[in-house]
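Try this one yourself first.
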């Protein structure tokens, strides 16, 4: 069903992925882009070997970055995890592409640089990732000076000390200590396990 919805509103010119050639092949079949790129050259070679359609298949990090400046694209959705999204985003901005940003790390690592490039090229950066998109939508039509502050909650659910059996402690006012707010995988795993056991 998602395939038909995408095709009603958009024509997909390029698909790019890291290494999941099987999933990319499914997406190629569903969306028929002109170009599909895998950053992992071995995965790209596997896909080229079995794919027989009209979509051109390329591989390698350089091709992955270049795909963000494809001439047929009006909007580039960047959703790579971590620092990996910065180079394709900058490439797209340099090519005057509007960005649908689903990679908050790009702004965390180089927000000033990215926003300056967007202003220089006269293009928009539209937040499409959960909280950022929600805030963006809420603020449409509002004057910036009318907003005094914005409060975002952290992801990951409740604080571990609130669940019996999870590590952590609070100060005298019940506020979690800084160590409790760290984004530690082990604590999140314990919290998830506690939730599943009905805590």
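Now uncover the answer:
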């Amino acid at each position: 069903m998602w395939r038909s919805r995408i095709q009603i509103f958009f024509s997909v010119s390029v698909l790019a992925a890291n290494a999941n050639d099987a999933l990319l092949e499914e997406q190629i079949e569903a969306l028929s882009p002109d170009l599909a790129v895998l950053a992992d050259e071995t995965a790209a070679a596997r896909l080229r070997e079995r794919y027989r359609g009209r979509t051109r298949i390329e591989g390698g990090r350089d091709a992955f970055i270049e795909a963000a400046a494809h001439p047929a694209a009006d909007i580039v959705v960047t959703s790579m995890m971590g620092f990996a999204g910065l180079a394709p985003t900058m490439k797209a901005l340099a090519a005057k592409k509007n960005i649908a940003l689903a990679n908050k790390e790009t702004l965390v690592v180089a927000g000033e640089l990215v926003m300056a490039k967007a202003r220089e090229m006269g293009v928009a950066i539209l937040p499409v990732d959960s909280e950022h998109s929600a805030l963006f939508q809420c603020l449409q039509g509002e004057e910036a000076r009318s907003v005094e502050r914005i409060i975002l909650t952290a992801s990951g659910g409740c604080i571990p000390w609130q669940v019996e059996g999870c590590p952590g402690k609070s100060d005298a006012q019940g506020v979690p200590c800084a160590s409790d707010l760290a984004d530690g995988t082990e604590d999140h795993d314990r919290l998830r396990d506690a939730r599943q056991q009905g805590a």
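Discussion: The CA atoms of residues 34 and 55 lie 5 Å apart. Helices lie at 2-9, 21-31, 41-50, 61-66, 86-94, 104-121, 130-139, 185-196.
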